[in-house]
Structures are given as C-alpha cells and as structure tokens.
C-alpha cells in the first residue's frame, strides 16, 4: 500500500512519467493519492498498475480527468474506487466503461456531475459487477435508473436525489434486489410514499434490509 500527499508539482512523483516509478510500483495493491494544488499541467501520470485493487483519489479534479486516467489507462484488477471532490462532465464519457469487475465506486466530498448522466460514465453494452455505489450530489435520471436496474450484483446504493421525471415508487420497484438504499433528500418524496402506501412506517422500513424490501414488493404488486 502507498499513500501520497502532494502540495506542489515538485513533490509529486506522478507529475512525470519515468521507468523507475513503473518498476517500483508495478506490484502495488492499494494507492491513496491527494494533491492540494491541481492544474492541467499537474495532472497525475500513473504508471502501469496491473495488480492494483484499490485507488482513492482525493484531489479536486476538473472535468475530463477521470476519462484521461481510467479510460486511457486500464487497471484490470481494480475492485474499489473512491473519489473526493471529483468534477464529472461530458469529457468523462465511458471513463469506467471497461471496468466490469469493479465492486465499489464511491464519490464523496463535493463531487459534481454536469452535462453528463451517471450512466454515461459506463458502456451500456457491458454487464458490471458493482456491489456498492455512493453518489452524493448526483441526480439520478431515467436513463441512470435503467442502467442501475441491470446491475444485479448491486447491494448498497447511496444517492443524492432523483430527477423530476423519476418517481420514487418506480425507483424502488426497479431496485427491489438492492439490500440497502439511502437517499439524501428522502423527505422530498414523503407525500408520494404516503399516498402509495397510506402509512409512514412502510416508507421508513423499506430502507433497512432485504426482508423489508420483499415486503414492499408484495405491497406494490
């Protein structure tokens, strides 16, 4: 494992591409990288990491960075990917398209998504192994919901909110196989849930575990 915190370009071992770095990090399993100052010129240049299992990036990356790092470089063994403060844009389309074996994808901090849907970070023709998703400050659209409903391995999902055209009941019905669902702006959908089921306890219960989700399934059939 290696943790790298860089406060300047001169102290950043990933600011240039060298064979020495490639050799020393070839068998790396886990990488945690953060830079306090970030510009197009200081974008990290990662070496080949064929055995990397987990990457955590803690910089305020601008749009297009994730595409350049993950689409143009393929980390075939990667299982867990965490971001803190990533900015996602149209330039990041298909950034994670090839990562069909990725188990966990989490965005934390002040990650933002604009001019691109979450599902467009992937390839709709592929089947993914994602078990955990954390998407704060990212609004889930109908296209995203369709994509999520095909990830049968998904066990946990945390989202910020749903787009106006996505109904909370449809969202829950399509994701009944998910064991744990958290929605940051859940209170927004209180009336719709109450109108559907007539009691608030059901609305509170179905977020807890698989057994309660099965109960919800019987309610909406």
TrEMBL record:
Highest taxon in the source lineage: Eukaryota
Lineage: Eukaryota, Fungi, Fungi incertae sedis, Microsporidia, Dubosqiidae
Organism: Hamiltosporidium tvaerminnensis
Family matches, as SUPFAM superfamilies: L domain-like (SSF52058)
Protein name: Leucine-rich repeat-containing protein
């Amino acid at each position: 494992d290696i943790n790298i915190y860089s406060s300047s370009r001169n102290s950043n071992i990933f600011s240039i591409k060298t064979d020495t770095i490639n050799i020393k990090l070839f068998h790396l399993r886990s990488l945690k990288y953060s830079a306090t100052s970030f510009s197009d010129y200081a974008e990290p240049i990662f070496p080949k990491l064929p055995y990397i299992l987990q990457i955590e990036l803690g910089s305020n990356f601008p749009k297009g960075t994730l595409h350049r790092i993950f689409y143009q470089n393929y980390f075939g063994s990667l299982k867990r990917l965490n971001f803190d403060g990533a900015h996602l844009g149209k330039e990041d389309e298909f950034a994670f398209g090839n990562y069909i074996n990725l188990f966990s994808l989490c965005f934390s901090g002040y990650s933002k998504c604009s001019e691109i849907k979450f599902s467009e970070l992937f390839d709709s023709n592929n089947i993914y192994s994602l078990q955990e998703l954390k998407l704060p400050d990212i609004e889930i659209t109908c296209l995203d919901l369709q994509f999520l409903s095909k990830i049968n391995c998904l066990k946990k999902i945390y989202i910020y909110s749903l787009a106006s055209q996505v109904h909370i009941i449809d969202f829950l019905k399509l994701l009944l196989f998910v064991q744990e669902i958290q929605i940051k702006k859940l209170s927004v959908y209180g009336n719709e849930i109450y109108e559907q089921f007539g009691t608030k306890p059901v609305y509170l219960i179905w977020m807890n575990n698989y057994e309660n989700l099965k109960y919800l399934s019987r309610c909406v059939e």
